[in-house]
Amino acid sequence: MVVTLLEETSLFELAVPCAVFAGEGYELMLCATSPGGAQRAPGGLRLTAERGLEALREADLIVVPACMMDGYEPPHALLDALREAHERGARIASLCSGAFVLAAAGLLDGRPAATHWMYAEELRRRHPYVQVDDRSLYVDDGSILTSAGTAAAIDLCLHIVRGDYGTAAAAEVGRRMVVAPHREGDQTQYAAPLAPVPPRAQGLAPVLDWALARLHRPLTIAELASRAGMSTRTFGRHFAQEVGVTPLKWLNQQRLSRARELLETTDLPVDTVAERSGLGSGDSLRQHFHRALSTTPAAYRRTFRAA
Fold it and tell me: What does the longest C-alpha to C-alpha distance in the chain come to?
């Protein structure tokens, strides 16, 4: 297997495949992607590799680590080598923003692909034919595999080991690295909550602030429209234009954000968290968490509760 060295690549995402695959039945090598065999890295480091892009002709697994998002243009020779490797049947995996390299090579067109949630919209903008998945920690689409950011690189690499050598092998690597061999949920639980009052919602800001102070109450759309001095239909139209979602979806988003905050900062029982966030019962809160974050309130609290 081959890990590509990119200019100014993230050292973490570069180190992850080296740590996971070294000594696990894989013949690991690094390859330079530009002439000279040396690549710049953050902090003034210089990374060297004995092999160049010719190494990709022999590899059955290629891992592309994260690339820098500010102005990085993958070399045409690298894109050609990736396309050739894919055509002959090699598996190609990208970590975090490395998905932009695969997308530039045309390997993600028409495919589901993961990347860091912070870069998802940019990936959609640059490559509209990619089916961007901003929820999953990683996506396995057969010969093309992609991961979300940073720690999700470990998740994907362990997934590859699990598929190649079994669950016990992946668990052993996880123990050596002191990480869970499989994590619950998806990356939406790590994304920052949406702004309660979007900057463009100037006209409706007083109504949104009023609602935020009463999330624990069973608010109705008619009640919000009345506060805004509009009919329900007119309010719904203005709300969608200014906020970007329907009033009901916004309320659910804010109630979920409130529940996340309470789980992170208090020891309140789940039923109390549900009541104070306006999501009703503990069962209702669990349903909302499963649907929106693919995890449970208890698992979320274990992950994010401050010491």
Answer: 70
